[in-house]
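Q: How would the structure tokens look for this protein?
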Amino acid sequence: GHVRMDARYVLEDTMLLAEAFPEEGEFAAAVANLTRTLELLARNRITPGALKHQLAGWHSCHFQHRVQQGAPADCRIVYRQDGEWLDILAFGHRTRPADIYERAGSERME
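A: Here is the predicted structure in token form.
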């Protein structure tokens, strides 16, 4: 599969991810795990969780910003499958600096 996302939101979400993980090593780990998780999603290796209400039709994939035993899955990718394409609506920390589902469900849905 292929991954696509509006370039404006890639930039915005990357900046917000840097804000959520201001320490360079933690940010690097988050980017690495984001990339790894996107690859797994594109190859249909992850079972998605369906979202409801305003985000009906979209899915949420939870992952750890740094892989470690017992660590919370503190990051999310909000996406949907469209044939061969994986449409990414948003990615980043679940709640820092703001709720990812609110961000995903705002003007990005238009």
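The first helix runs from residue 7 to 20.

The chain is about 35% helix and 25% strand.

Upvote if useful.
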